């Protein structure tokens, strides 16, 4: 008889549930969230395991890759889909979540998620580290401005190069504020140094990545946008059509239709928010900067802007960029050829 397994992954231990083809629970357990422990437990069942499901999460890709390599029929499940299916359960627990996932696997009512390659995960980790330092650097500068503002000291407009000098000018003659400013400015120097190092690594990675280099031929698309997009797409062949990419990143309108009601809403904003933001930034640059080589795209978007406003035009152009960039990755074509598709 076929059996189906649901795994609810937690940081330390994972709950497992095995059900048969009739939905009856055959075995349950709790195992350390380590590939070797999970594989050993599953193989120790001595049962025919048709499908094994685990919800996408921080540890899931690591566990999924190891279980796939071990020859197990494991599926990575889309988080929103699982959450919607399990929210009908009155009692939420790791054990009940594992039972619910097992039933989803038995019924086939699940949406599989692509497990990214190690190269894509490494690129995303580099971009995440860079973004984290950039955010903390910005927060530190805003906090320093806020501290001084409480004493009537206004930093005002300044440049990154003159920021420290301006702060020291303001706190001169205030011993307590000088101590605070020196500490925060020292932290700022350390953050700036590490951020610049990550920035260089990102630029180097973009130059060495042939796919990212290809996407950077699009005016308005730089190293950050190209690497963010290629890391998210990973394998272009997993999309049957380039038109699906816009919906995948939440850049297509939602729709509610029931009886006589038919409403087209705002964009869904599902999928990777970082990719969506990167595509929007690329669209913003194309529409607001005097760039060469993007006349077709800019003219198309400006027609939308005159009809529906600049914000909607940028969203529409971001979606079109996603479609074009995917087609470039899939075919290896240049931007000029892709832009006329």
Features:
single chain, 341 residues, alpha/beta, Nucleotidyltransferase, domain 5, five-stranded mixed β-sheet, two-stranded antiparallel ribbon, disordered C terminus
Outline of this structure?
57% of the residues lie in helices and 14% in strands. The chain is of the alpha/beta class and 341 residues long.
The strand count comes to: 7
Q: Report the mean per-residue pLDDT as an integer.
A: 92
Shape: globular
Helix run count? 14
CA radius of gyration is 25 Å
What is the ordering of alpha helices and beta strands? EEEHEHEHHHHHHHHEEHHHH
Uncertain runs with pLDDT below 50, 5 residues or more? 337-341
Q: How much helical structure, as a percent, in the residues?
A: 55-70%
Q: Span between N and C termini?
A: 50 Å
Tell me about the biggest sheet? Answer: 5 strands, mixed
Task: Give the helix/strand layout.
Elements: E1 3-9, E2 13-20, E3 25-32, H1 35-43, E4 49-55, H2 60-69, E5 74-77, H3 79-86, H4 94-107, H5 118-149, H6 163-171, H7 175-208, H8 210-215, H9 223-233, H10 244-248, E6 253-258, E7 261-267, H11 273-288, H12 295-308, H13 310-331, H14 335-339
Parallel strand pairs: 1-4, 4-5
Antiparallel strand pairs: 1-2, 2-3, 6-7
Helix pairs in contact: 1-2, 5-7, 5-9, 6-7, 7-9, 9-11, 11-13, 12-13
């Amino acid at each position: 008889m076929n059996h189906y397994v649901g795994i609810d992954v937690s940081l330390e231990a994972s709950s497992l549930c095995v059900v048969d083809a009739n939905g009856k629970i055959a075995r349950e357990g709790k195992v350390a969230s380590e590939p070797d422990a999970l594989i050993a437990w599953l193989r120790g069942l001595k049962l025919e395991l048709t499908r094994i499901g685990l919800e996408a999460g921080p540890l899931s890709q690591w566990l999924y890759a190891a279980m796939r390599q071990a020859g197990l029929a494991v599926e990575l499940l889309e988080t929103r889909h699982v959450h919607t299916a399990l929210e009908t359960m009155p009692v939420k627990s790791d054990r009940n979540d594992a039972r619910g996932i097992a039933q989803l696997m038995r019924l086939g009512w699940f949406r599989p998620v692509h497990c990214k390659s190690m190269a894509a995960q490494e690129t995303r980790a580099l971009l995440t580290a860079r973004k984290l330092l950039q955010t903390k650097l910005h927060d530190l500068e805003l906090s320093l401005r806020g501290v001084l503002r409480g004493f009537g000291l206004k930093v005002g407009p300044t440049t990154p190069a003159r920021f420290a000098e301006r702060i020291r000018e303001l706190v001169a003659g205030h011993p307590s504020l000088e101590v605070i400013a020196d500490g925060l400015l020292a932290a700022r120097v350390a953050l700036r140094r590490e951020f610049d190092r990550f920035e260089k690594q990102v630029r180097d990675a973009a130059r060495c990545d042939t796919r990212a280099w290809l996407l950077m031929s699009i005016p308005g698309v730089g190293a950050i946008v190209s690497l963010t997009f290629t890391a998210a797409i990973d394998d272009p062949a997993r999309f049957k059509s380039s038109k699906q990419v816009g919906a995948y990143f939440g850049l297509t309108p939602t729709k509610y239709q029931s009886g006589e009601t038919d409403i087209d809403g705002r964009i869904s904003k599902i999928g990777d928010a970082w990719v969506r933001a990167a595509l929007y930034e690329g669209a913003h640059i194309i529409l607001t900067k005097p760039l060469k080589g993007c006349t077709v795209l800019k003219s198309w978007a400006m027609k939308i802007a005159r009809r529906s406003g600049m914000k909607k035009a940028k969203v529409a152009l971001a979606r079109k960029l996603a479609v074009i960039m995917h087609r470039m990755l899939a075919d290896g074509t240049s931007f000029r050829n892709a832009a006329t598709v």
